[in-house]
Amino acid sequence: MAEDVHAVAARRLRRVEQRYTPGRRALVDALIAAGRPVTIGELGAARPHLPQSTTYRNLGVLEQAGVVRRVVGTDEFSRYELAEELTGHHHHLVCVSCGAVEDFEPPSRLERSLDAVIDSVAEDTDFRAESHRLDLLGTCATCRA
Fold first, then answer.
1. Residues pairing with 79 in the sheet
2. pLDDT, the chain, mean
3. Can you tell me the distance from the alpha carbon of 108 to that of 26, in angstroms, rounded to the nearest whole number?
4. Cα dihedral 107, 110, 114, 115 sign
5. For 82-117, what is each residue's pLDDT tens digit?
6. pLDDT digits (tens, 9 = 90+) for 117-132
7. Which pTM value belongs to this model?
8. By C-alpha distance, which of 107, 101, 104, 88 is closest to 140?
9. 108: exposed, middle or buried (C-beta count within 10 Å: 0-12, 13-18, 19+)?
10. Residues 6 or more apart whose Cβ sits within 8 Å of residue 95
11. What does residue 10 show for φ and ψ, rounded to 5 degrees?
12. Do residues 86 and 5 make contact, with C-beta atoms less than 8 angstroms apart?
């Protein structure tokens, strides 16, 4: 998977006239390894050799190129993950207490129901939906303990 992700990342960066630098590759590797949306602090802990200011700038470029997606939780920290086209369609569990964000994949039956609702809303409102995401807000097991 990683090699395909890197090839796609390089192509997407070229489209926005950016290079796939070693620092950007290291960030993509860190996001692959994390397997969930992570904060800049978590990325820094995973890759301490990358300066925080460089991480901010590179995440912005990767987001602009469509390699990375910013996930907003319920706390003051943005989280970052690889774009869904690179990892597969999924949704998020968002803890309203600590702000943690975890990925989850609903059963295909639920995904089909969501698609049907989206199609109906699109028809009723003349809105063309391109994608969807479902964030379930609640309290994680750690905070409930």
1. 71
2. 91
3. 33
4. positive
5. 998 898 889 999 999 998 899 999 899 999 999 999
6. 999 999 999 999 888 8
7. 0.83
8. 101
9. exposed
10. 73, 74, 101, 138, 139, 140, 142, 143
11. -60, -45
12. yes
